Amino acid sequence: MSFGKLRASIGQIPGGIGTYAYPGFAYGVGSVQWNGNILMGTPDVLVDPNISGFVTTQKEVGIDMQFLKNRVGTSFTYWLGDDKDFATTLAINGASG
User: Fold this and answer.
1) 21 touches 42 (CB < 8 A)
2) Closest alpha carbon to 56 in 20, 81, 87
3) 92 C-beta neighbours (distance < 10 Å), count
4) d(Cα 89, Cα 6) in Å, to the nearest integer?
5) Among 48, 54, 66, 92, whose Cα sits 20 to 30 Å from the Cα of 18?
6) Residues in the chain with pLDDT < 70?
7) What pLDDT digit, counting tens, does each position of 22-41 carry?
């Protein structure tokens, strides 16, 4: 073996902060009228007002080896990624109020 290297890294990336807007419970007035009546719509998505964002964690461990005066080499890597507290939307029927 003419060369060998062991490597490892870990990182955390915050995300999603400020991307979610709370729609509230107000009825929206549409710009189109039907038969002289104003059309209104209700929100069809629930958003938790206490959403704080999510964290992406990534870990990597690897080894590099070279043989025969750096003519032949190999590299092995193990990578693991995880998202914690990732927010998802929940669709609801607009008729539920």
Assistant:
1) no
2) 81
3) 13
4) 42
5) 92
6) 16-29, 41-49, 88-90, 94, 96-97
7) 555 555 667 777 787 877 76
Pair of tokens at residue 67: 């043989």
Q: Which of 72, 92, 81 is nearest to 3 (CA)?
A: 72
Dihedral of CA atoms 34, 35, 37, 38 in degrees, nearest 10, equals: 20
- DSSP code for 27: P
Reference 7, options 80, 63, 84, 78; nearest CA is 63
The residue type of 4 is G
- What tokens were used for 42? 């209700």
Give the CA distances from residue 86 to residues 2, 15, 20, 64, in Å, rounded to whole numbers and listed in that order: 45, 9, 12, 34
